TrEMBL record, chain A:
Subcellular localization(s) per the UniProt record: Cell inner membrane
Keywords tagged on the record: ATP-binding, Cell inner membrane, Cell membrane, Membrane, Nucleotide-binding, Translocase, Transport
Keyword ATP-binding: yes
GO molecular function, one term: ABC-type transporter activity
Location, primary (coarse class): membrane
CC annotations in GO: ATP-binding cassette (ABC) transporter complex
Pfam families: ABC_tran
Classification via Gene3D superfamilies: 2.40.50.100, P-loop containing nucleotide triphosphate hydrolases (3.40.50.300)
Membrane topology: Peripheral membrane protein
InterPro entries: AAA+_ATPase, ABC_SmlMolc_Importer, ABC_transporter-like_ATP-bd, ABC_transporter-like_CS, P-loop_NTPase
Protein's recorded name: ABC transporter
UniProt domain ABC transporter: residue ranges: 5-236
Family from the record: Belongs to the ABC transporter superfamily.
UniProtKB/TrEMBL annotation, chain B:
A Pfam family per the record: BPD_transp_1
Record field: transmembrane: 12-33, 73-96, 108-132, 144-165, 190-211, 243-264
Recorded GO CC terms: plasma membrane
Classification via Gene3D superfamilies: MetI-like
Membrane topology: Multi-pass membrane protein
Localization per record: Cell membrane
Domain of life: Bacteria
Protein name per UniProt: ABC transporter permease
Organism of this sequence: Ensifer adhaerens
Family (UniProt): Belongs to the binding-protein-dependent transport system permease family. CysTW subfamily.
Keyword set includes Transmembrane helix: yes
Length: 368, 281
């Protein structure tokens, strides 16, 4: 099978010797929407720029549709890049901007104009086609950049934080448009972002990066429910992590002794007896019980012993959502939220003792 | 001090500044309308006349005051300034383009370039004269002096372009490459139109600096004089208001140059718009 994009042990070392990307491996099928997610400086943009050809590849191999691209100049790669700053040409009208990439393709004028018209219509830009980009709004400029990048029909569209400069509402709207556009056109998208909500909402698979290394490549849901590493568990979602030591295993459960008692969860990765591990519990999996109404023993057997004591630190109701901050015995806090019908204000006065429980299947045990 | 007092004193300061800046020019302009040929380069004005302007163009009856020997010098100076402007601007743009990326020894090369505008002109001129003599090269305004003019004005063009490139968003060029356009075409279609206002400024710098360059030219230009040298030469004999009349005309020429610069600037801003309209038609 030929992938649209293959990165085999790709590495980047800057001239001063600092490694930016280490041993990056990824295969992308046609039409996939891939997100590179990570904190700033994790190497995600550098990787994208290596794919585009703006940065040289120090080691490893990069292939597009089976062809080695390492030494091919950017203008000869079947990729097109959308920049966070949009990088629109201020001295050209919207139409000239969009048609710019077609000018060098040796295409008949009529065909070129037809293509430009079609993409302008697809993105709803007909009305502003003769305007200069600097007079237009962020959302419009974003769409012009997309039109300009897509009109040359790249195999892979590279997007460098394309929504970063937009305000929250617009970002949401363009997110949906982007996803729809990608599905309609069937073009492979590689998207760089530091906003996990964006990555989770848009992509088929997410590559989580940290300090130049790939931490995990998974579909969004799996990333959320089955993190591979402590970094992913901390970076994605709202997880509570307990450190402990492997006690033993039963069925597909791993028993872990922690300072807060013995907990159980599904193992992820190879874990040997007595090894140091992390138990990762997503906030969504946690049930809260007022200690005044139920005892630990009453619930412990229904959740495989996954009960820890806590107290209410804060309780706020915003509209129909209750926000509960629970303080654990070790001083850490856990933020939880649920519908106000479920967390009723009078059941959780500040300072009250509570019990937190979760099903073993919802917790993931990973190597520390 | 209260706000209005502050405003007043700043206004007075600005007025004083302008008087010092343009005062000499105004005095020069007034005296250029002195009557001739008996009127001298001092107040009072005996009678208002345009005698010295006519004298400049040889339209007055012969008198004991010789016409300014500037005709050929003016042509030479203009030619030299245009040559210098072209070469320095091209060098400035390409050198600044090279400096957008760090390269080995870029710091040293930077200071070597900038040195050209820092070193005292008299010394460089003298040095050039000595080198030319040693090597047996004839000194001319279009050879030895021209080289020195480029060495002097190139750093200005370079620094102007460096500042322009500093504010230039390189992702604009990357966007162009990623759309399949070669670097050469990208430079023509994207980079150059966007840095064009800077190129105009660099040209203006190079032209004006070369046009009234004196100290370097003095030793390096050989027998044929450039305009600043020719004018200086007339001072050593006797000063007549015809020099002032010429000064006024030169200043008008400079203003015309600035006007052209401003017009070109405005044009470069509007050009893209016009292209769009033409394509529409």
């Amino acid at each position: 099978m030929i992938f649209d994009l293959e990165l085999n042990n790709v590495g980047k070392v800057y001239d001063n010797g600092t490694p930016a990307v280490i041993d990056f491996n990824l295969s992308v099928s046609k039409g996939e929407f891939i997100a590179f997610l990570g904190p700033s400086g994790c190497g995600k943009t550098t990787t994208l720029r290596m794919i585009a050809g703006f940065e040289s590849i120090s080691s490893g191999e990069m292939l597009i549709k089976g062809k080695r691209m390492n030494d091919i100049r950017p203008e000869h790669r079947p990729t097109s890049m959308i920049f966070q700053s949009y990088a629109l040409f201020p001295h050209m009208t919207v139409r000239r901007n969009v048609g710019y990439g077609l000018d060098v393709k040796g295409m008949a004028k009529a065909e070129r104009d037809a293509k430009v018209d079609r993409i302008l219509a697809t993105l709803g830009l007909e009305d502003i086609a003769e305007k200069k980009p600097d007079r237009l709004s962020g959302g419009q400029r974003q769409r012009i950049a997309l039109a300009r990048g897509l009109v040359v029909e790249p195999d892979i569209l590279l997007l460098d934080e394309p929504l970063g400069a937009l305000d929250a509402n617009l970002r949401k709207a363009i997110q949906n448009e982007l996803k729809l556009l990608q599905k309609t056109l069937g073009v492979t998208f590689v998207f760089v972002t530091h906003a996990q909500s964006e990555a989770l909402a848009l992509s088929d698979r997410i590559v989580v990066m940290n300090q130049g290394k790939v931490e995990q490549i998974s579909p969004p849901h799996q990333l959320y429910t089955r993190p591979n590493t402590a970094f992913v568990a901390q970076f994605i979602g709202n997880n509570t992590i307990f450190q402990g030591e492997v006690d033993g295993a039963s069925d597909d459960r791993m028993l872990v002794s922690t300072p807060l008692g013995q907990l159980s969860g599904r193992p992820n990765g190879t874990l040997s007896a007595r090894s140091r591990v992390n138990v990762v519990i997503p906030a969504e999996a946690i049930e809260v019980h007022p200690a005044a109404r139920v005892s630990r023993e009453q619930i412990a057997h229904t959740v495989g012993g996954n009960v820890v004591g806590a107290s209410v630190r804060r309780f706020d109701v915003v509209g129909h959502v209750s926000h509960l901050t629970a303080a654990l015995a070790d001083g850490r806090t856990v933020s939880l939220e649920a519908h106000v019908d479920k967390y009723q204000p009078d059941a959780f006065p500040v300072g009250a003792d509570i019990l937190l429980s979760w099903q073993p299947g919802e917790a993931t045990v990973i190597p520390a | 001090m209260n706000a209005s007092g502050m405003k007043l004193s700043l206004g007075a300061y600005t007025a004083l500044f302008l008087v010092f800046l343009y005062g000499p020019l105004v005095v020069l302009a007034i005296l250029s309308f002195q009557t001739g040929p008996e009127g001298g380069p001092q107040f009072p004005i005996i009678e208002w006349s345009t005698y010295w302007y006519k004298h400049l163009f040889g339209l007055t009856p012969p008198s004991r005051i010789a016409p300014l020997p500037i005709e050929q010098a003016l042509v030479r100076s203009l030619g030299l300034a245009v040559m210098t402007m072209i070469v320095s601007t091209v060098l400035g743009v390409t050198a600044a383009q090279a400096f957008r990326r760090k390269f080995r020894g870029s710091g040293v090369v930077f200071y070597l370039i900038v040195l050209g505008m820092m070193v005292p002109g008299v010394l460089v001129g003298l040095g050039m004269a000595l080198v030319a003599k040693t090597l047996g090269i004839d000194r001319h305004w279009w050879s030895t002096a021209f080289v020195l003019h480029v060495v002097y004005t190139f750093p200005f063009a370079f620094l102007v372009m460096l500042a322009i490139f500093n504010r230039f968003d390189p992702s604009m060029e990357e966007a162009s490459w990623s759309l399949g356009v070669t670097p050469a075409r990208t430079f023509r279609k994207v980079t150059f139109p966007l840095i064009f206002p800077g190129v105009l400024s660099a040209m203006l710098f190079a032209f004006t600096l070369s046009y009234d360059e004196f100290s370097r030219t003095l030793f390096a230009s050989g027998r044929d004089l450039t305009l600043p040298l020719a004018i200086y030469g007339t001072f050593s004999v006797e000063v007549h208001p015809n020099v002032f009349a010429f000064g006024v005309l030169t200043t008008l020429f400079s203003f015309a140059l600035l006007g052209t610069y401003a017009a070109l600037m405005m044009l470069s801003v509007r050009r893209a718009k016009r292209i769009a309209i033409q394509e529409e038609a």
